[in-house]
Each structure stands twice: as C-alpha cells, then as structure tokens.
Amino acid sequence: MQRSSDNGACDALDVIFARRADPVAELLDDAEAVARTCHAMARRFHAGGKLVVFGNGGPSTDAQHVAVEFVHPVIVGKRALPAVSLTSDVATVTGVASGSGLDEIFAHQVHHLADPDDIALGISTDGRCANVRRGLEAARARGLLTVGLVGGDGGSIAAGGFDHVLVARATDPRVVKEVHVTMYHVLWELVHVFFDHPGTLEAEAGA
Questions:
Q1: 12, 33, 46, 185: least buried by Cβ within 10 Å?
Q2: By its UniProt entry, which Pfam families does this protein fall under (predicted)?
Q3: What total of structural domains would you count in the chain?
C-alpha cells in the first residue's frame, strides 16, 4: 500500500517539475532575445541611466527584489547600479490611485521621476495588467528603454510594441513567478558581464 502511495507521489512530482521545466527550457531557447535585452540595459546604465521597476500584487514584490539586487549586489565585487521600485511608496501609489485611478499609478510616477536615459521594467504575471502597460507606455513616450517580463501568451504588453518583452510561457501564475525570478537574476548577471567587457558598450555609446 505504501509503495502505491509512493508511486502516486512520484508521478505527481514528475508532473509538477515538468510544468516548471518547459517554461525554463523555452527561456533558454530565447537566449538571443535575453542577451539583446541585457545589452540594451547595460548601455543605458553605462550612459548614466537608472532602472525603474514596477508591477502589481506579487510582481510588486518582485519589483522591489529587482531594485535591491541592482542597488545592493549580494555578490562581492559587483558594482551597485541605480534602481528604484515604483511600488515601494505606498503614499504615492494610493494617492495617485485615489486621484487619477489605479491604471495611472506607474505612468504618473514615470512621468515625474524617470529620465529619458533610464530603463523601465514592467512585470505582469499574465501580460494584461493595465497599469503596468500604461507605465511602459509613459516610459516609451519619455524615451526610456522599455522592458516587460510577462507570462502566459504575453497579453497586451507583449503586443504593445515595447523594446524588449520576455515571456514565461506558462498558465500557472506560480510557475510564471518562478520563471520571472530566474529571468531577472539572469538580467542582473548578464548586465554585469557586459560591464566586465566595457568595449561592447562604448562601441555603440552614440547609437
């Protein structure tokens, strides 16, 4: 009886891991897109820009996680890079939501806090968060580099014509979040790889 129960648990575990392995494998297949995204981000940092990150719900905590990864690297010897999460100031978020509506909470901050040399990173589990899309639209209008981390089929954010959109192709929001963590750790690491080879950034500094 115990053996049958163990077999059932093993079968379930296989399914659980497979549900996570496939989206990660697809991320590996998108290695060129990931590299292009990191190179574009590194060039912006190299030119003096900062990273502006935002997301709803669970992705709001991811935004804070991304910001601290860049500002306070856990790996000794890696340089700190300027980053700010637009989800951290509760007074501003709730004030804008009350006065202008929830859809404007990130767009308003981008308009008033971001500079054209900056990077806007919007995170959405399903790619359909209206305020994340509006934040990216406001960033694009100001000349920022626009980057989306989304899930599912990419939603309206993937179809929004932004500079770089990386998709965790999973329908389970837990899996999407797990893949997003891998994505932004890869973004952080590869940005630093480009900084370790500054010629790759200086050659196109005027582009």
A1: 12
A2: SIS_2
A3: 1
